Amino acid sequence: xxxxxxxxxxxxxxxxxxxxxxxxxxxxxxxxxxxxxxxxxxxxxxxxxxxxxxxxxxxxxxxxxxxxxxxxxxxxxxxxxxxxxxxxxxxxxxxxxxxxxxxxxxxxxxxxxxxxxxxxxxxxxxxxxxxxxxxxxxxxxxxxxxxxxxxxxxxxxxxxxxxxxxxxxxxxxxxxxxxxxxxxxxxxxxxxxxxxxxxxxxxxxxxxxxxxxxxxxxxxxxxxxxxxxxxxxxxxxxxxxxxxxxxxxxxxxxxxxxxxxxxxxxxxxxxxxxxxxxxxxxxxxxxxxxxxxxx
Length: 295
Ligand code: 7UC
Ligand code: FE
Description:
The chain has six helices and 19 strands. It is an alpha+beta fold. The protein starts with a strand and ends in an 11-residue tail after the last strand.
């Protein structure tokens, strides 16, 4: 294993000659430290089957199967498939996932600690994912906003981005919406997390999933506070040129691990409609979502 360089343009560190099969416990521990402190680790030249990919994810935490089976790879419920590829045998996975600012499972009681992302088929151009480091976004907030969000909580829901399943055709929309609210009821998380490993403070909101902000007693705070936070953190800039936004680009064989507490991401979907497919394994680690505030 060789930890080489910071990837060009992106923020990640690049690792060559990593083999999930022969990796020692020390190597995995070192990679985990880099993952939390550098936030993105790119393992290059990987050629893994489904079971090997799940095993690799397991080195970084406990894999969790996505709650909606429509995304599952036929050989493993732990592999989430994003794909616009139609096969003779029918479709696998879901097209055009995640093309909005979010953190994976932020709308669930236990959001994932780490996302392991493994592109299988890349478009000719526009290979990559946009990221915002929400520790940096927190530090860059105006003092007014930093003060205003002390001791507050946000509410998160997937409702705007839940995909209609093929079997839902002809169902009344009200019934589908009621089912979404029942399966994935809104969750409340602190607006500012303390990262359990790095100790950094993170602004924990996303344009896709966060829909309300409230004080500790549950009293609603103005919606303009939330939209100001989204704007200052860079999430309302549809040109993606806000200084907080960076593009991490991929080469074939790259397997990308990221810290899903600290980073929010937005998929870059190719306008040319090239065939693309990616696999992901998401894991929980041994730490709670948010660490203790230093006393
Ligand atoms: O289809 C999608 O874009 C999936 C999204 C609503 N959730 C991904 C996640 O892990 O939170
Ligand atoms: Fe995602």
